Amino acid sequence: MIRLLIVDDHAMFRQGLKQILAKQLDMQVVDEVGNGSDALMKIKDEEYNVVILDISMPGKSGWEILADIKNVNPDLPVLVLSMYPEDQYAVRMLKAGASGYVTKESAADELITAIRKVANGGRYVSATLAERLAYIVGAHSDKLPHQLLSNREFQVMCLLAAGKTLKEIADELYLSEKTITTYRARILEKMQIRNNVELTHYVIQHKLLG
Known about the structure:
The protein has 210 residues and is of the alpha/beta class. α8 (166-173) crosses α9. The chain starts with a strand and ends in a 5-residue tail after the last helix. The chain is globular and about 55 Å long. β3 (50-53), α3 (62-72) and β4 (78-82) form a beta-alpha-beta unit. The protein contains ten helices and five strands. Helices cover 53% and strands 12% of the residues. It folds into two domains: 2-136, Response regulator (Rossmann fold); 145-205, Winged helix-like DNA-binding domain superfamily/Winged helix DNA-binding domain (Arc Repressor Mutant, subunit A), CATH 1.10.10.10. A five-stranded parallel beta sheet has the order 2-1-3-4-5, with helices on both faces.
């Protein structure tokens, strides 16, 4: 039996996911939580075979929660289930320690396949992404500007492009406004972009917002 922990801040989505998984005879949703802190408490107290993790939640980001989970239990497979496009986020999450990446727009069959694969020690990306990654590796293509950013810089970039103020981003990420200002300056420098308007245009052009 594959024992599952769902980590997602949307209660209705968790309920829908539980209904899908309940039809699988080899799966059991043992617990569900809406934030990273509760997830870590559960992982310390319970045994799971797979954690299903959303990227975007209040407080800590999905990257930070993933890192925390790996610190507590390095061998616990984490399957990221996110609204964000896989071609921009999957590689980052896999490098951070995730065992697989599935978008919320994917069919239920793909999710079930991914859960079984990571539960058995494998890694999962869609066939489309696997083909794209193989092409990139084969072509030795140069990195795009946003691929030079750290995970935190990438997160701040997307929030800026979404129209959030420095204070709003600072509050959401539990950081100081001065720190966010520093991140913004670093992002503009790395990407050779002059202002938020150009940054927003770049993010939209490359479909980095979910």
